[in-house]
Amino acid sequence: MSRFDGKVALVTGAASGIGKQIVLRFAADGGTPVIADLNLDAADATAREIRAKGSDAFAVAMNVADEAMVEKGVADIIEEYGQIDVLASNAGIQIVKPVVDFPFSDWKRLLAIHLDGEFTTTDDVADAVLFLCRRQNQRAHRPVAHREPRLGHGIDRWRRRRFGALRHDDEHGLREPGRTRVASRTRGRNARDS
Ligand SMILES: NC(=O)c1ccc[n+]([C@@H]2O[C@H](COP(=O)([O-])OP(=O)(O)OC[C@H]3O[C@@H](n4cnc5c(N)ncnc54)[C@H](O)[C@@H]3O)[C@@H](O)[C@H]2O)c1
């Protein structure tokens, strides 16, 4: 039994650098990492690298400063795995300049990724986890025959509450709750290769 057996971690900015090392280590310790990054091709490559070593991994296109993309990414993860146990808000950029040479637009970009990104990911993951806890509680009181096959199946209700009414957004594949495009993600080894 490894340290992270059965655990799912969402790691932002995990296609490269420090985030990539986090997901490689998490997978080596038995967990399933979700690689969320602006750069989907690089996220896919990292997921493939992990799957080649025999672990599961899932790549999601996500700009952490974009609330709709974070919502969609979190909903996709819950739909796939029915859980998120760990969040590492690692995505970030480095702009290192003397303050007198620091354009205000760069400052705002930095804050949007580092601060807004922390907020959007924590907000969505915490909300989804609370939803799943309540659901698990209700489920435990239901006869087995009336339980949904997987906890993640209830995510449509969470999606509906978060997204509100019908929402059209072709860029992010958000249409109606429960009818999102799947082009922006790749499935984990078990789901895809079985
Ligand atoms: N490397 C250092 O010395 C250092 C020092 C202090 C803090 N940090 C912080 O650690 C984190 C990782 O640093 P790193 O050196 O691995 O950086 P890196 O540039 O190697 O990797 C950052 C990753 O984040 C992704 N990313 C950037 N903006 C994003 C966004 N808006 N949404 C989703 N993904 C996004 C990039 O595509 C990239 O894959 C960053 O937050 C960085 O600011 C790094």
Structure commentary:
- The chain is of the alpha/beta class and 194 residues long.
- The chain has a single domain, classed as Rossmann fold (3-Layer(aba) Sandwich).
- The protein contains 6 helices and 5 strands; from the N terminus they run βαβαβαβααβα.
- Strand 1, helix 1 (17-28) and strand 2 form a beta-alpha-beta unit.
- Helix 3 runs antiparallel to helix 5.
- The two termini are 23 Å apart.
- The site of nicotinamide-adenine-dinucleotide (NAD) has 21 residues, from helix 1 and helix 4.
CATH topology: Rossmann fold
Cofactors, ions, other ligands: nicotinamide-adenine-dinucleotide
Corresponding CATH architecture? 3-Layer(aba) Sandwich
Question: N-to-C terminal Cα separation, in Å?
Answer: 23 Å
Number of domains: 1
Largest beta sheet: strand ordering: 4-1-2-3-5
What's the CATH superfamily, by name? NAD(P)-binding Rossmann-like Domain
Element order: H for helix, E for strand = EHEHEHEHHEH
Q: What is the subunit organization of this protein?
A: single chain
Low-confidence stretches: 165-194
Count every helix, treating DSSP H or I runs of 4 or more residues as helices.
6
| The top level CATH class name | Alpha Beta
Helix content: 40-55%
